[in-house]
Automatic annotation (TrEMBL):
GO terms for molecular function: ADP-heptose-lipopolysaccharide heptosyltransferase activity. Pfam families: Glyco_transf_9 (PF01075). SUPFAM superfamilies: UDP-Glycosyltransferase/glycogen phosphorylase (SSF53756). One of its GO terms (biological process) is lipopolysaccharide core region biosynthetic process. Keywords: Glycosyltransferase, Transferase. The keyword Calcium does not apply. GO terms for cellular component: cytosol. Coiled coil: none annotated. PANTHER family: ADP-HEPTOSE--LPS HEPTOSYLTRANSFERASE 2, TETRAACYLDISACCHARIDE 4'-KINASE-RELATED. This is Glycosyltransferase family 9 protein. The lineage of its organism: Bacteria, Pseudomonadati, Pseudomonadota, Alphaproteobacteria, Acetobacterales.
Length: 304
């Protein structure tokens, strides 16, 4: 049995689709999977069970990337195609059952839209796949016995970024209450991401700097060892939620009603103002600190 799964070019949306993939893995234990996604998201699926191929879709002029996907997939009959991009590609392939997401942006949780395509209500929570080697590497980087707080101070555009000094202030408040905490600062590759993380790294010299050069699954292995994640609305935030750790997403100029993190211990804190248009500067340190403490307390009360 062969399943073609067409998901997002963006990491965050791709993470949100992993719950459906996990459900398909359980439902069809004899199936193999081909994933079509953007290059940024490709590493998310590196250790997915029964994945036989990832087709990286690089955007081309005149939508030629869809032609390239068709060319890559036309030589096989597909038992199932799940297309979260709403394309027509599957209609030009030999496909048994098609699940094609239609429509543009709409209200409600994105993870619910994805699950609803297969009639899954409630939608399955996202997951993260890592290798034994990556988990061992994470164990060396994040020593056991330390309670690590992961900070995600970057995002794909500046309007979604909470001021760096407030990340520092929240961590200082948490550490004052629990001196056993230590920060690990996570960010993506490239000079722009490094520049966005630099003020937090400079203010927290004892924090672990992950360097921005880790793969998506390596970052997931690190996150799985953390006590808490605090970060802007980003792919990294969604990855933390998928790892099942307490995850606090910070929102202002993006919609928490659509893109709040999904996970067993995932919460959003939203800046005051119009939904999706509120300045991040309106979100106070005390509010975020209080939400983080409440989340940790809930997790501890549940036996974590």
């Amino acid at each position: 049995m062969h399943i073609l799964f067409i998901t997002s070019t963006r990491l965050g949306d791709a993470v949100l689709s992993t719950g459906v993939l996990d459900e398909l893995l359980r439902r069809y234990p004899q199936a193999d999977f081909t994933i079509a996604c953007g290059p940024v998201a490709a590493g998310l699926f590196a250790h997915m069970p029964r994945r036989v191929r990832t087709v990286e879709m690089v955007k081309r002029p005149h939508n030629r990337h869809w032609l390239e996907l068709w060319q890559a997939c036309r030589g096989r009959r597909w038992d199932i195609c799940v297309d979260l991009r709403g394309s027509v590609v599957s209609y030009f392939l030999r496909v048994g059952r098609r699940y094609v997401m239609r429509g543009g942006r709409r209200p409600g949780r994105r993870v619910a839209h994805i699950g609803g395509l297969l009639g899954l209500d409630p939608p399955p929570l996202p997951v993260a796949w890592t290798s034994a080697a990556e988990r061992a590497q994470a164990g060396h980087m994040l020593a056991a016995g330390t309670r690590w707080v992961a900070l995600g101070p970057t995002a794909n555009w500046d309007g979604k970024i909470w001021p760096a000094e407030r990340f520092v202030a929240v961590f200082a408040a948490l550490r004052a209450a629990d001196p056993g905490l230590r920060a690990v600062v996570l960010y993506g590759p490239g000079p722009a991401e490094r520049a966005r993380a630099a003020p937090v790294l400079a203010a927290l010299p004892n924090a672990l700097d992950t360097g921005g050069g880790l793969s998506v699954s390596q970052v997931a292995a690190l996150l799985a060892r953390c006590t808490l994640f605090i970060g802007n609305d980003s792919g990294l935030m969604h990855l933390a939620g998928a790892c099942g750790i307490p995850t606090l997403g910070l929102f202002g100029r993006s919609r928490a009603a659509e893109y709040a993190p999904s996970g067993p211990w995932a919460r959003a804190v939203v800046a005051p103002g119009p939904a999706g248009h509120a300045p991040m500067e309106g979100l106070g340190v005390d509010e975020v600190t209080r939400a983080a403490c409440e989340l940790l307390r809930e997790r501890q009360d549940a036996g974590g």
